[in-house]
Structure formats: structure tokens, C-alpha cells
Amino acid sequence: MAENPAYPVGLRLTGRRVVVLGGGQVAQRRLPALIAAGADIHLVSPEATPSVEAMADAGEITWHRRGYAEGDLATAWYALIATSDTDANTRASAEAEAHRVWCVRSDDADAATAWTPATGSSEGVTVAVLTTEARGRDPRHTAAIRDAVVEGLRDGTLVAPHHRTRTPGVALVGGGPGDPDLITVRGRRLLAEADVVIADRLGPRDLLAELPPHVEVIDAAKIPYGRFMAQEAINDALIEHARRGKSVVRLKGGDPYVFGRGMEELQALAEAGIPCTVVPGISSSISVPGAAGIPVTHRGVAHEFTVVSGHVAPDDERSLVDWPSLAKLTGTLVVLMGVDKIGRIAETLVANGKSPDTPVALVQEGTTAAQRRVDATLATVADTVVAQDVKPPAVIVIGEVVGVGPRGTV
Ligand SMILES: C[S@@+](CC[C@H](N)C(=O)[O-])C[C@H]1O[C@@H](n2cnc3c(N)ncnc32)[C@H](O)[C@@H]1O
């Protein structure tokens, strides 16, 4: 005879007594969701893993340091039986049955009255995957289905349109340094939901090719700006598209607030009364050195790192960077937008006390297929940049951290 399928349900456990027997790995895995559900959790177990113990120390669960005793389940709404003592598990599940307490058994799915589905959440929706029959239970398969659905919802490859009206507005999305895998999950989802994308030259441009044909993709560098500054023209384009009721993503390289003019765009949108959300991104200032095997800090070598813009030369009156003070720091200096001015920057650092032998690395097109690393010192970097034809975009790292990683591994 065919087995009846399990009936799926969502338990609302806030303030309700849930008893967990056994403080091992199963409890460790299940407790966070029970805590998140607001259950009044009582753990009965002589021992517990350090993580479970930490939950008890934090007051998230009440821990009774003893083995199971008859009566433990009498007033529970729900029970999870997961001790290594089969006899205790059997007695406890008989008690659960007698008191009509739904009960999960980690050692015997057939004897259980409830099963825990593989769950995951995205955007206020919980995805729960359950095998239909005890015989066919394959936890890895259900977990894989859960992962596929949740990942797909998060990255937008599984399109489940919202039927509530979407608020038009702009998302300033930090796209990371260039590798399409290095955008955040939230950024990727917003990109998948966009009607209009205004993108910079830097950042994960490969993702643009994956957008459906109805999405209007605008190259920020090509927006005509006539009598405006280029940035004003971009701000206007953002406002104009949002006013037409579109969901607009402003896709930026790295993080929107690291030399990204993100705040200027946010301010312009706020003045125009357009809702705006900002999604952080992985900045090239840390990730590009990392991709080339250079840590910006290293124990015993550098206890600080400073990120500076090198877009104007040190003696330029527009420069806001105190180069003489930077020359006195012992940590790492990370220079963005500095390829053209690196000769003058190196000269200034040396003139103010930095050793001419200080190692320098230039990492061009970091995290992309074209990534390239060129090494020099402060004394040689100006000539090296010319000789090796280093071109922007590049992140320049100055300091002893340049030499700490094993070469040839990245
Ligand atoms: C206008 S800034 C934007 C920085 C960006 N908001 C961030 O957080 O990474 C542009 C500079 O970032 C650096 N940059 C960005 N992406 C890079 C990459 N993939 N490889 C090397 N340098 C990069 C270069 O120094 C480039 O000139």
C-alpha cells in the first residue's frame, strides 16, 4: 500500500514550549531556526557542543543538564529527539505520542510524527522542501533542491514576479571589482529585477550580457552631457527613468562610497524625492591586491592600511591628501586612480622619508581575465610603469606586504 504523504505546515512557535533532547550536532543545526521562531526552547542533555552551550549562555535556550526523564515532553508543543541513546529516544517518542506532541526523531524517520524539511529563505519567503514518503527520504537531494530554489531567487535566475506593485526608484549597487561572482547576492537580485541599468566602465560588465532583452542598459560614460558636468547628466538620467516608474539600477565598480560618487547621486535623488537604496560592494582597494596575492595587512608587517586617491599629483593645489604624513606611516598605502601620477607620488614619498627600496605592486584589471601584476620599488616604479606599459585601471600597493605572499600561486 502506498504511504500517505506528509502534510506540510508552518508552525508558529513564538513563546511555545519546544523540547530538544540531545545537545549534539543535530541540535546545533536545528536550534538557530527554533530560536529565530521565538520558541521557548528547553534542551535536555547532559552535554552539549560549544555552539549549543553558547546559545544557553546567551539565554536563547534553557539547558537542563541531565538525561531524558519521563514527563519532559508532557507540556511541549513540539519535540526534537536527537540523543545517541536509542532506548531513550524510543521512550521519549512514545511519551510524545501519548501527549500528542509532534515529534522529530533524528535516528528513525519512520518512527517520527514530524519531519524537518530542508529550508532556506529569500526576500521574506521561506522555501521548505520535504520528501513525500519516509522510504524515499534523501536529505541531500532535498537540500540540493532547496539550494537551487533559494540561490535562483537570490541571484534572479529563477524569476518569480512580485504581484504587489514594485516601488519605482533607484538602487546604487556596488558591483565589486569586475569578476561577476564578486557582486553581492542583493546586488545581483536587484540587477535581475531592473528595468533600466546605468553602468560604469568598471565593475562586473559581464553581468550585463545576461540581462533579458527588455532591460535598457545605458553606458554611463556615453550619456551626453552638453552644458552639464558628466555627473549631473548621470544624476538627471537616474531621476528621469525613476520618474517614468522604472526600477533603475546604477551599477558601479567596487563600493559606491569608495571614490564612487555614490553620495552625490544619493543626494541628487533625495532632492528629487526619488527613493534610493544603496547596496555595498567589494572595493577594489582590498580585493584587487588580494586577487594578486597581496594582503593589505599582515601580522608583524602592517597594522594599518590607508586608501588614497592618486588622481591629482601631490603638488596639485586640488589635492586633499597629506602625502608628507603618509610617508611617515609604517603600514600599507593603497593608491587608486594613480597610474598616471605614480612617478610624482613615489618622488614625494621618498622626499618625505620613505625608503626608495619600499616594494610597490601595480595590479591592473584585477579579478578579470586580463589581470596582471607588475612589481617595482619606489625608486623604480616610474620607469617600470612606462617600460611595462601599465594602464588604468590599476590598484597600486606600496609597502612591505607586497613581498609577504608566495609568488607564483596567483
Ligand atoms: C573611480 S575609482 C572607483 C573605485 C571603486 N568604487 C571601488 O571601490 O573599487 C576607480 C579606480 O579603482 C581602481 N579599480 C577599480 N576596479 C579595478 C580593477 N578591477 N582592477 C584594478 N583597479 C581597479 C582603479 O584604481 C581605478 O582607477
Automatic annotation (TrEMBL):
The keyword NAD applies. Residues 170-381 form the Tetrapyrrole methylase domain. Keywords: Cobalamin biosynthesis, Lyase, Methyltransferase, Multifunctional enzyme, NAD, Oxidoreductase, Porphyrin biosynthesis, S-adenosyl-L-methionine, Transferase. Pathway: Porphyrin-containing compound metabolism; siroheme biosynthesis; sirohydrochlorin from precorrin-2: step 1/1. It comes from the Bacteria. It catalyses: precorrin-2 + NAD(+) = sirohydrochlorin + NADH + 2 H(+). InterPro entries: 4pyrrol_Mease, 4pyrrol_Methylase_sf, 4pyrrole_Mease_sub1, 4pyrrole_Mease_sub2, CobA/CysG_C, NAD(P)-bd_dom_sf, Siro_Cobalamin_biosynth, Sirohaem_synth. The active site is at D200, K222. One of its GO terms (molecular function) is sirohydrochlorin ferrochelatase activity. It holds the Pfam family NAD_binding_7. GO terms for biological process: cobalamin biosynthetic process; methylation; siroheme biosynthetic process. Belongs to the precorrin methyltransferase family. PANTHER family: S-ADENOSYL-L-METHIONINE-DEPENDENT UROPORPHYRINOGEN III METHYLTRANSFERASE, CHLOROPLASTIC (PTHR45790:SF3), SIROHEME SYNTHASE-RELATED (PTHR45790). This is Uroporphyrinogen-III C-methyltransferase. The lineage of its organism: Bacteria, Bacillati, Actinomycetota, Actinomycetes, Kitasatosporales.
